[in-house]
What we know:
By secondary structure, this protein is mostly helical. It has one domain: 3 helical TM bundles of succinate and fumarate reductases (Up-down Bundle), CATH 1.20.1300.
Amino acid sequence: MREQVITRDIIADPKTKYGDAKASTRHFITQRVTGAINVLFIGLLVFIVVRLAGQDRADMVAVIGNGFVGIPFAVLLAVVTVHMRNGMRDTLEDYLAGATYRLAMLLNTLFCLAVGLIGVISILKLVFWG
């Protein structure tokens, strides 16, 4: 089967179907919602940074190990990694195509998943096991 060459005329024509409309809408909404959540949680992040400035490990464990701080902080980290993945996806879509794009997206997803899982598990370990 011959692959269709996508030109500017095809993209500009509203009668052609270019891309996945549902996935694009979901991506747009996810990016906006995670951005709004990040703005709401910025106060928590500033509190943690200011509270832990110049403190030793015991104070860090005491602050982050508190359930009222640690659990929202873990949620914030998860939301930030989703937002980070989507932001990098936008950049990768602009500059890469084909197999290179798919490889870069795989690496981006794996990196964000690793950062999110390691961070959330570390925070929850402090909350539940000190």
